[in-house]
Amino acid sequence: MAPFAPGPLLSVRTAIVLLLALVVGLLSGGLSYLAEPSAPLAALYGGGAACGALLLFHKVVGA
User: Fold this and answer.
1) CA-to-CA distance for 28 and 42, rounded, in angstroms?
2) Half-sphere exposure for 59 (CA within 13 Å, toward CB)
3) Could you list the pLDDT tens digit for every one of the 63 residues in the chain?
4) How far is 22 from 57, CA to CA, in rounded Å?
5) Which secondary-structure segment (H or E) carries 14?
6) Nearest to residue 27, comparing CAs of 52, 39, 45, 54?
7) DSSP state of 36
8) pLDDT of residue 7
9) Exposure of 33 by Cβ count < 10 A (0-12 exposed, 13-18 middle, 19+ buried)?
10) Are the C-beta atoms of residues 50 and 22 closer than 8 Å to each other?
C-alpha cells in the first residue's frame, strides 16, 4: 500500500488571486501614506483595497 501523497496546499489560481490582491493592497496603502502620512489610515485603505481586489480577481481570473 502506497503512503498518502498530499496535493499542493494552494492551487495556482488561488496563489495568483492572493498575490494580485496583496499587490493592490500594498500599492493602495503606499499611495495613501504618501498623500497623508498616517500609518493606521494607510493600513485601512490598503486592507479595503485588497478585499475589493480579492473579490474582483476571484471573479475574473481563470473562472
Assistant:
1) 8
2) 5
3) 667 878 889 999 999 999 999 999 999 999 999 999 999 999 999 999 999 999 999 999 876
4) 11
5) helix 12-35
6) 45
7) S
8) 85
9) middle
10) yes
Residues 21, 51: Cα–Cα separation, whole Å: 7
Amino acid, res. 20:
L
CA distance linking residue 35 with residue 40, whole number of Å: 13
One-letter identity of residue 28: S
Q: Is the CB of residue 43 less than 8 Å from the CB of residue 25?
A: no
Q: How far apart are CA 34 and CA 21, in angstroms?
A: 20
Residue located via cell numbers 500594498: 26
Compute the distance between CA of residue 33 and CA of residue 13 in angstroms, rounded to an integer. Answer: 30
